[in-house]
Amino acid sequence: MNRPEFYIFDREVQPPERPKYQETVDEINRRSGCQALLTEKREMENYIHPDAIKAVCPEVNISFGGFDNVPLKVAKEIHNNSESQKTWDELSGEKKDRKKSQVKKWLNTKAVEKMNPILLNSIDPKGEVKSWLTRIANLIKNS
What we know:
By secondary structure, the chain is mainly alpha-helical. It folds into two domains: 5-40 and 126-141, no CATH class; 45-123, no CATH class. The protein contains six helices and two strands, in the order E-H-E-H-H-H-H-H. The protein has a two-stranded parallel sheet with strand order 1-2. Strand 1 (5-9), helix 1 and strand 2 (34-38) form a beta-alpha-beta unit. The chain starts with a strand and ends with a helix.
């Protein structure tokens, strides 16, 4: 379709380990009018400030680093604060995955809606997210 393309891939693993999608990123970057990059943190959810998460789900009071599994930590916290008779460790792998998937969905919709420039600057002091937006704007402008 001769349109610019921009992709952001989760790093998934902490440096110096080779990112899971490095080959895909390299392949995309060889194509004309296409750009791809890897996040510096584990995944997109690591760019959501804990205060934005708490604004959506007040019982979730967590902190996390750039390579923590945020959806897993949030799902565990929600489960542990529930009235469930089972502990997190007693749940089946399927049940844990379903809870994590549900959390991932609302983190990337409802929690993201609670983000603002102050929270973004706090969770992303290097300005990585802003640099993605600048790159996207430049790609469109130059197409």
